[in-house]
Amino acid sequence: MQTTFLPRWPATAHDSYAPSVWVMEAVSGRRRLVALGSSAVGVTQMSWAGGIPALRALSARDLELMVDGVSNDMGGTVHGVSVQAGRIDQVVLPPAPEAVVVPRQLPAVVPDFCGRSAHVAALDALLAESEGNTGGAVVVALNGSAGVGKSTLAVWWAHRVQDRFPGGTLFVNLRGYGPSAPLAPQVVLTDFLTALGVAERRVPEGVEAQGALFRSLVTERRVLVVLDNAGSAEQVRPLLPGAAGSLALVTSRGALSELVVLEAVRRVAVDVFETADAVRLVEGVVGGPRTAAEPDAVGELAEVCALLPLAVRVAATRVASRPFLSVADVVEEIREEQRGLIGAGGSWRGLGAVRSVFDWSYARLDPVHARVFRLVGLHPVPEFGVHAVAALAALDSRSAIHVLEELAEQHLVEPVARRRYRMHDLLHDYAALRADLDETSGGREEAVTRLVGWYAGVAVAADRWLFPRAASVPMPVEARDVSALVADREQAVGWLRRERAVLSAVQRMAAERDLYPVVVALGVASRHLWSGPRAWWPEGVEAVSRGVDAAVASGDVPAEMLLRDLKGHSHRGAGEFEAAEAEYRVVQGVAERSGNHDWHRWALSGLGSLRRVQGRPEEADGFYRASCEIAVRVGDEVAEAMVRGNLSEVAVARGRFDEALDYARRAWEWRSRNGDVLTIAYGRHQLAVAWQGLGGHDTAVELWERVVDVYATHEDRKPQLASVLEAMAGSLTATGRPDAAADRLRRAAGILSDLGDPRAGHLVRRADDLSAG
């Protein structure tokens, strides 16, 4: 029986492998095949963009070993015409069949939607056009000024027709207008792709590659894409589906003229309500008996609100909540506000009517509710959680919930999830204006300082769940309610990902105010981004870079060294090897001058990992050995175990399996005594890999079975679980247990299929071949 070693592309490049390491393992694997006298060659799909630089670095002999014995011979009986390739430049495996994910992302619809019959008819006609269109997706733009109800119309109509789009409904608020930065197309595409079933780690880098994959995925499925609050054509264009049958609905305050010209967009103008529609909205909110008693006053209420749906709804909600007030009383109060309003400038130019309604509603809030409302205007984005608001306003969480629920009753905020709220962009702007007018400068700065400190505190707590043994920084403040948000590792991952955009904005706010400890803490806590899609990595580079600047400005050398080390890792992961080396060398230089052993070890290990991904394992081994010597000399058992694990993996890549086993065993001595379950599981995995290389397949299988038991209970370890199951299949095959090997391959294929990994089909075929004998 021949034994075939099949090196596989690791689950994630930042899990300590990279394309060049795959190449070196392939070479060493081929060397083993040559030694065993086997003519089989293992082929796996890999990122050729990442692998080509490493291929160029290989010696001529290495390249000969990789292709030695590969032929293009045809076997068996051939019927009909055959075509053979004289040269093969790339192997592309077809994607595995996977369960279709059908996203339905629309937010809740308002319960009392009314009017807009002409707009609905226009949208229905365009829907019919999209169903019969063969030239490409139909794109519709709803244009109109702030507060006219574009988003409400878009969401209501999308709910009404989404069953006509079996491929799913995608929704995003692009934040094109407001205090926070507009969402970048790359960020939105990442979210769209994952919603469509693409595993995060398989989302490509760069907006062009992401857009191409997005359009490919929706080619065979009718999807409805709702792009709300778009700021520019550049923000929208990469997000449009290309295939016929799909429809994109865009809302924007701007005309998006360039998009209309280049993409043949159908434009539907949205203006203020007709008087009759505004009256119907008031009737729906207030109730028939009260409005029937004052029909003229209801019409006047609509008029003083300038027929703007948002203003009408806010005023009507206030009337509904005050049964002792007549509609006529409310109309007179709003008119008094309008008479007292002196030139609303800036973003309120031309919106005097809606400003007066907001002023009137705000003036009738009690002092506590009014204060919370205006402080929410200081939050960097118009969506927020209860605990963030509690930090802003220096309240306990129960009080914050009570206030936010009351504001929701007044239609000043909108609940979107448990203990999470959203504010209309126009109301968010108004809240910020009230904060400028009604809070002292010191009061505003104190509120922002509490907010950014709270976010940094929770982020550090979450970071410690993800990286319990890594160097960290102190919490800038003792954030309240941390245990309610990040009580375990899974919650920590969820919170960091949910608040990703907010944390970036918060760090910028802190940097503008020279709140250096907060900037540093958020820089360190950004390292979780490297376990996400590549589209997140530029955010990580920016966050770490801001952290370095803050550490330098504040003279915090320990924080600077930690952040430079992280910055080196970020550049290394992005393939920016020169920049990575520069950061590691800075840390090395400071360490050598100061005599700090930790910093010196970080630099040497970083350089070792860099050489490893550059395809220079001998140099990697030298740096790792030097790092290990420091750890042994200072008695740092944790660092020693980690570096010995790295040395074991480098030894595997070099085909030195006895050496790999020795390093793995010595790392295991500490892991088995002190590690958490994941650390222990990874130690067993390193031992198993070494034993497999030595031919100790039974021992390897036994170790991997225990690793599987652990990884199967951790949702974020699915890629690693699939890798272990695949590796185990190799040892089961080598020991004459093909049925068991096929079972492991099918389990691995199921996991990869769920993750959207196209290698799933390849594993199924391997399993079928084993079962067929």
From TrEMBL:
User: Which Pfam family is an annotated match for this chain, by its short name?
Assistant: TPR_12
Superkingdom of origin? Bacteria
**Segments passing through the bilayer:** none
InterPro entries referenced in this protein's UniProt entry, alphabetically: P-loop_NTPase (IPR027417), TPR-like_helical_dom_sf (IPR011990)
Q: Which GO terms describe its molecular function?
A: ADP binding
- Matching Gene3D superfamilies, A to Z? P-loop containing nucleotide triphosphate hydrolases (3.40.50.300), Tetratricopeptide repeat domain (1.25.40.10)
PANTHER family cross-referenced by the UniProt entry: HTH-TYPE TRANSCRIPTIONAL REGULATOR RV0890C-RELATED, REGULATOR-RELATED
Q: What's the protein called, per UniProt?
A: Tetratricopeptide repeat protein
Q: Which organism is it from?
A: Saccharothrix syringae (Nocardiopsis syringae)
